[in-house]
Each structure stands twice: as C-alpha cells, then as structure tokens.
C-alpha cells in the first residue's frame, strides 16, 4: 500500500500532534498488502482527514476499509495524508494526483473534502469519488457516505445516564461544526430521556476555521479534566485524535470515557486506558469505504447518498468492555432504546 504523503503519528498522550507534510507525489510502500503486486488490480485511494492515520478513530476506520479491500478484493491501495493548516487548494492537488494515478475510487475522508471533490470530480468524470460525512456536493460520480451519528450518540447518552453515579456527564466536541452538533444532540437527548435530572456539561475545543480540536490530544485532556473537576464521571468525546486526551484524563481519574467512530476499547494505541472505556459510538466507516471500492470493482459504482443508520448497524454502541456487558441494567436500557429508535418510537434530534 502506498502512502502519498506523511504525517508524524503520535503515541496516545497529552502531547500535541506534530504534523509534517511532504510534497504530494512522494510515495513509499507499506507492508501488509499481499495483493498490491497484481498489475491489473483495481487501484483505490483514500485521502485522510485532520489527524491522519494513527488517530485510533475516524481515519483508522477508513484505513481498515481500504486494507480489507486489499485483502479480500485484490485492490491496490494508496493513502494520502493531510498537512497542518492546509487549504482547499492543497486538497484539490492531492485528489487530482490520486485520480491522475489511476485510482478509482478516490475517497475523501471527512466533510472538509467537499469543496475539493466538487471541483476535481468534474475533471475526472469516469472516476468515482467517495465523500464521507457530507451530502452538500453531488454529481453522478460522487458517492456521499453518511451516517446517523445522532442515533448512536443517543445510545451513548442512555449508557452514560445509567452508568453515572454523580448525575453529571460530559460531552466534548472537537470543532463546533454541524456534524459534531449531531453527536451532541443525540447524546444530550439520550441522557435527558433516561434521567431528566442529569446534568450534561458541553464543551467544544475549537471553532472553525481552527480545526485543532480534531488533532491535538492535549486540548481534549484539558477539557475532560475541567469536566471531571465539575463532577462528571462519564465523558463522551467526539473529537477525533483529540478525544484520546479525554480518554486519558478520564482513565487517570478512574471515571468512564465513551469512545467514538471506532471501537476504541480495541485500539492498540489506547490499550493503557481501555479498562475505563465504557463503550464507543461506532460508525461503519470501514464498511462504507470497502463497499464503495467493491462497487467500482464490480462495475456498479455507488452514487448519491449512501446512508448508514442504526437499523442496518451502520452506527451502534460497542460492547467489547466486559465491565460494560456486566452492567445489565445499562445494556437493557440501551437495547430498549435501540429498538424504539429502529421502530420509529423515538426520533433522535440532529441539532441541540
């Protein structure tokens, strides 16, 4: 697997992420891809969002989808990393380079790629572009891969309210954008529907155009510590790599953290804190990436809105932590809420 550009990955600690970009087009070969030597293999590429591969969350889930396509479909994969403070023009150059190299599909991991995909997709009408977490840009060769994050977050709110002993829980959003407001809305509704007296502390790490709230663990750690000091004993962070700092802080205090996007209990980079990761709100980003690659390989490219919700397990709540499984009152409440959402008895808000 080729990585077109690189960033410096981080260990999970409170140190800020150091991003170093190299010029688009410089490539190297990743190990672990047994099928990349096939000359006639489908070529597929993903361009990572802020934080890059190694975030233990959103980007890593996208990578898992590409890796699965390599292993199961004989796809030759390429990856392209972001650079700190980059512009839309940088994204246009990255996507253009990937498309010119013959990759099809080319997948932008995150809503920030919408303007670039809107432009580049016109120049490469025979290439399918996957756009994760955005429906604002449409075209016959664009597959909009979106999720009902609010539904999974509602379940997290139910779990948090049931697990909390203080009646105070916290929500940390990486950057205050509409997508993350969906996480907040679902979580708060789930908490309040479960315990109307519960208090939800809400904090966003940065405001656009500053997107450090998705990439700097020290910001997440500081925010979580502030909420812990105010009595929160369950903290849910929807903040990408910055969320690892919140998990670290909750773990150090012996309180519960709720992960996001990937099953963070299983992430190797978070192993030191996993016992305090109660559960995680999962998004099947891996499946969405794999599915769009497979659709192109099968000659039937996905196009338009492809939505992943609770009814199809496109979002959900992980149960990897044995401690969570033992909380039968919590798991029963979560399962009841899940059924009521799927059956239409509960409508989850998408704005706070």
- The gyration radius over C-alpha positions equals 20 Å
**SSE order, as H and E?**
EEHEHEHEEHEHEHEHEEHEEHH
Largest β sheet strand count, sense and barrel closure: 7 strands, parallel
| Structural class label | alpha/beta
The shape, in one word, is globular
Residue stretches low in confidence (pLDDT < 50, at least 5 long) are 5-40
The side-by-side strand order for the widest beta sheet comes to: 1-3-2-4-5-6-12
Q: What integer is the average pLDDT?
A: 90
The end-to-end distance, rounded to whole angstroms, is 41 Å
List how many beta strands DSSP finds.
Answer: 13
Q: What share of residues is helical?
A: 25-40%
Roughly what fraction of the amino acids lie in strands? 15-25%
What's the helix count? Answer: 10
Topology:
Layout: E1 2-3, E2 43-47, H1 58-73, E3 76-80, H2 88-100, E4 106-108, H3 114-123, E5 129-132, E6 142-147, H4 149-163, E7 168-175, H5 178-194, E8 199-206, H6 217-229, E9 234-238, H7 243-252, E10 256-261, E11 277-283, H8 285-297, E12 304-308, E13 315-317, H9 322-326, H10 328-342
Parallel strand pairs: 1-3, 2-3, 2-4, 4-5, 5-6, 6-12, 7-8, 7-9, 9-10, 10-11
Antiparallel strand pairs: 11-13
Care to give the gist of this entry?
This protein is α/β, with parallel strands linked by helices and 352 residues long. The protein has ten helices and 13 strands.
Written description of the protein model:
With 352 residues, the protein is an alpha/beta fold. It contains ten helices and 13 strands. Strands 1-3-2-4-5-6-12 form a seven-stranded parallel beta sheet, sandwiched between helices. Helix 1 (58-73) runs parallel beside helix 8 (285-297), helix 2 (88-100) packs parallel to helix 3 (114-123) and helix 4 (149-163) packs antiparallel against helix 10. It starts with a strand and ends in a 10-residue tail after the last helix. Residues 5-40 have low confidence and may be disordered.
